[in-house]
Write a structure and sequence with these properties.
The protein has about 450 residues and is an alpha/beta fold. About 40% of the residues lie in helices and about 15% in strands. Helix 5 (about 115-125) runs parallel beside helix 6 and helix 11 (about 245-255) packs antiparallel against helix 14 (about 290-300). The structure holds S-adenosylmethionine.
């Protein structure tokens, strides 16, 4: 067995991060799109077998490239004792923080290590990962590091393993390109912490009068609900570059990474996500890279979470795909009486107040269930209803239940980090996304529904 802990230990970090903000910690984050049950559900929808095979809760390995302080990965490690988790990040303070939290929890299935992307390929073994996740990195680093990240992903993945990569994209960020450049240029003349430089740059930019009220409503709105430490990392970063999806597809192809859809449900169903005229336009574009750019243009997309397979992956026959989907477990994200039975997609509002959707919502009110356990509704109606509920944000894919002996220790460690430190908690069905600050007082109703 490969001693990954030994391989990743002790890599000296002393060269800075190629223009990335390295003198403040990025906020601790759990990103639900990268959780194994979510990725598996999205692959099943696309007719692709899970890297874990048909039975969940089998041993697997997940690597997080640019894991920040690793707290999101720590939640996954506590919720999936059957898995092994490896996080790498070039900021040694991130890794020190994550290691301290993991030690406090008592986790033995996670390794966190300081590596520059440029060095990690030499330090890490090949073919170890079923899942690689990389969130908020590709559009925040320079071109050479983008290549390192994709090459590292391809090296780490087993054949049929999946890379989930989240990045800022165009055309959505177009109105912000000049705003970020100006803010960063103005902040460059200011001393202080990254937070102080961001605030100073923002105040100086406001003074210039260069940007209209819409820009200020937008950034002030974000400042109301995102952690303060996020902003310097987004706006003071030298290589910040929203990307065209087609360019990402082409770059990934050079490393043998094959597109397999997306990890977030916004584009789960073309018939829900695209107007009929858009579907016609897209169908007439032969090049996958051009088609993805066109889809982003039509929908004004600003963030993507793309899935890529190492090699072709295993395609599911239609009957096998249906079985996989019926075997998939789901949890409700909100109380039954809060569900509106409508989803806002880029094509408009979809209304789906029907027997199948109501039966699913009723069944999940008591806790997570496999889709196939919902009685009295045909599978075609179940699939339509679960897709619509997923796109509406009313349900999320989860795993079958398992013992998670370190759940209480994980929550104690998170609470010790401070109120609002993180947006997830560990349950028998995986990690549940919760609001920052909600962990301290989750009531019995919420716990039962989320399987915590
Ligand atoms: C925007 S943060 C995202 C963190 C985490 N993935 C999340 O989404 O919460 C980008 C991360 O990439 C790391 N990073 C940036 N450039 C790097 C490089 N050249 N080598 C290694 N890590 C780097 C940073 O330290 C930071 O933790």
């Amino acid at each position: 067995m490969i001693d990954v802990a030994a391989a990743v230990e002790g890599c000296a970090v002393d060269r800075g991060l190629d223009g990335y903000v390295a003198d403040s910690l990025y906020p601790s984050n759990f990103h639900a799109a990268f959780a194994p049950p979510n990725i598996d559900a999205m692959l099943a929808q696309a007719g692709i077998a899970s890297p874990r095979g048909p039975a969940r809760r089998r041993p697997f390995t997940m690597v997080d490239i640019g894991c920040g302080d690793g707290v999101g990965l720590i939640l996954n490690a506590a919720a999936h004792p059957e898995g092994h988790f490896i996080g790498i990040d070039g900021n040694p303070d991130h890794i020190a923080h994550g290691r301290a939290v993991a030690a406090r929890v008592g986790l033995s299935n996670i390794d966190l290590a300081s590596h520059y992307f440029a060095d990690a390929r030499a330090a890490l073994p090949a073919g170890i990962a079923d899942y690689v996740q990389c969130q908020g990195v590709l559009a925040w680093v320079g071109e050479a590091n983008r290549g390192h990240v994709l090459a590292l992903s391809a090296q780490l993945l087993k054949p049929g393993g999946v890379l989930a990569v989240g990045y800022n994209c165009l055309p959505g960020w177009t109105p912000i390109l000049a705003f970020q450049q100006m803010l960063r240029a103005l902040a460059a003349g200011i001393d202080g912490t990254p937070g102080e430089r961001f605030e100073g740059g923002l105040a100086a930019l406001r003074e210039t009068g260069l940007f209209d009220a819409g820009h200020w409503e937008w950034i002030d709105g974000l400042r109301d609900h995102l952690p303060a430490d996020y902003f310097a990392h987004e706006y003071l970063n030298a290589n910040w570059t929203p990307l065209w999806s087609g360019a990402v597809l082409d770059a990934a192809a050079a490393y043998g990474l094959v597109p397999a859809g997306q990890a977030r449900p916004g584009r789960l169903r073309p018939d829900f996500a695209f107007k009929a005229a858009w579907r016609k336009t897209l169908a007439a574009i032969a090049s996958p890279a051009a088609r993805e750019c066109a889809a982003d243009l039509l929908t004004g997309t600003w963030f993507r979470t793309d899935l890529f397979l190492k090699g072709a992956g295993r395609a599911l026959a239609p009957a096998e795909r249906d079985r996989a989907r019926l075997a998939g477990w789901w949890a409700a994200t909100q109380p039954a009486d809060a569900v509106h039975f409508e989803a806002r997609t880029s094509a408009g509002t979809i209304r789906f107040d029907n027997d199948a959707a109501r039966a699913i919502v009723r069944a999940l009110a008591g806790g997570p269930q496999p889709l196939g356990a919902i009685e009295g509704i045909g599978s075609a109606d179940l699939f339509n209803a679960i897709d619509a509920l997923f796109m509406a944000g009313a349900v999320v894919p989860v795993d079958p239940p398992a013992d998670v002996p370190l759940a209480a220790a994980t929550h104690a460690a998170l609470l010790a980090m401070g109120a609002g430190a993180v947006n997830g908690c560990v349950g028998r069905h995986g990690v549940a996304r919760i609001a920052r600050g909600a962990l301290a007082d989750l009531d019995a109703e919420n716990r039962g529904r989320l399987g915590i």
